[in-house]
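To fix ideas, we quote verbatim one protein's residues and C-alpha cells.
>
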Amino acid sequence: MSVRAGKVITPPVTASILESVTRGFFIKFIAEDLDLPVEVRDMTRVELYASDEVFFCGTGAEVTPVSSVDNMKIGEEYPGP
C-alpha cells in the first residue's frame, strides 16, 4: 500500500497479490476509522518512489513499513505521519 497526500492506494488482488483478511481489515480500517480515501488500482514504480509512505500488510507480515524501493528512499525513511 502507498500513502501520498493523505490518500491510500493499494493494488487490486488481480495484480498478483493475495487477498488476505489482514488486507481487507486495513482497507476497511483506513477508510472508516481513519476516514482516509482508499483507491484500489494498479500503481507504477514512479508512484511508489513519490509516496509519503509505503507498507506491506498480510497475515504473516501484519503491517511492515518499507523505507526504500529500488534503493530510492521513501518519504522521510521512517514510518508514520
